[in-house]
Design goal:
Layout: E1 4-8, H1 13-29, E2 32-39, H2 43-48, H3 50-74, E3 79-85, H4 88-98, E4 103-107, H5 113-127, E5 133-137, E6 150-155, H6 161-175, E7 178-185, H7 191-195, H8 202-224, E8 230-236, H9 239-250, E9 254-258, H10 271-278, E10 282-286
Parallel strand pairs: 1-2, 1-4, 2-3, 4-5, 6-7, 6-9, 7-8, 9-10
Antiparallel strand pairs: 5-10
Helix pairs in contact: 4-5, 5-10, 9-10
């Protein structure tokens, strides 16, 4: 599925989760792993203290070398690593483009909300500038097996939804997973649309549900053609909240989302942003490829 996978790695537990997930992924499906360690700094910081830079560079090399040896000894997987200095999002974007990366992986397991928000902002910056897919691992190291039993695919009625279904089917075929398509009918009467006087009558609600079902009916046969049964459900509410609640209720271990077109009813932040921050399932965000 992916030939060149970039793992953002700093030796922490959550970045190690991403590395182990990807290592198992590669063991099952093939591919090459490139570790990227970014030494974040300000120009003034290292200009005044070169010893500190040398110290952090040495630590980074030890961290990456240990990970490289671990994957070679335990998984028999060759891994290369790069250590660069600068802004994390810019460095990730630059490295992904230079090395023709088709999947970037990062871990967020165990981070507190503030740190998740900071990391989420990095992820969103990267997503806006690259075309490849992005895997956000939200599991403890012991739960990272590179396989998924229950896949949730939120549907947003975009022309590219067929690509999302195909990706889900690729994984389901290999892992014997079950797939559920979730169509959330937004509550337009809340937030900005509500302030503009929008009222969702019973007739409008029925029309929205009818249109949602038509969209699902077009997508479900994609799985049937490959011998993969697909379930579907339509619910009302805020997309991000409903995705989170449904994934938790159904114990979905992977959410696959298209990176484009997810605006919530407040028109302030994206549904993707909220799902990244608040959801506890791992997330595969599909890029523009």
């Amino acid at each position: 599925m992916y030939q060149n996978i970039l793992v953002a790695y700093d030796g922490s537990e959550f970045s190690r989760s991403a590395l182990i997930e990807v290592a198992n992924w590669v063991k099952i499906r093939g591919g090459n792993i490139l570790l990227l360690h970014v030494i974040e700094n300000t120009d003034q910081e290292f200009a005044k203290n070169t010893d500190e830079f040398d110290k952090r560079w040495k630590q980074a090399k030890e961290i990456c070398q240990t990970a490289q040896d671990d994957l070679k000894n335990h998984w028999n997987i060759p891994v290369e690593f790069i250590i660069l200095e600068g802004d994390p999002s810019k460095i990730i974007i630059q490295t992904a483009k230079e090395h023709h990366i088709d999947l970037i992986a990062m871990g967020t397991y165990g981070r507190k909300r503030l740190k998740r928000w900071v990391l989420g902002s990095v992820i969103l910056k990267v997503l806006s500038q690259i075309n490849c897919d992005f895997l956000i691992v939200k599991k403890h190291c012991t739960e990272c097996h590179g396989q998924y039993q229950s896949i949730l695919v939120p549907i947003n009625n975009l022309p590219t939804e067929n690509i999302v279904i195909q990706k889900a089917c690729d994984l389901a075929h290999q892992d014997k997973s079950n797939i559920t398509l979730l169509y959330v009918v937004p509550q337009y009467e809340k937030g900005f649309m509500g302030m503009m006087g929008f009222v969702k009558t019973k007739s409008i609600q029925n029309t929205l549900h009818h249109d949602a079902q038509k969209t699902l009916d077009k997508l479900i046969p994609v799985g049937k053609q490959r011998g993969i049964p697909i379930q579907s459900e339509i619910i009302d509410g805020d997309p991000a909240e409903r995705i989170e609640q449904y994934a938790s209720k159904m114990n979905n271990d992977l959410i696959i989302m298209n990176n484009n077109g997810w605006l919530n009813s407040d028109l302030i932040s994206t549904t993707t942003d909220k799902v990244i921050l608040d959801n506890f399932s791992s997330i595969l965000l599909l890029g523009k490829n």
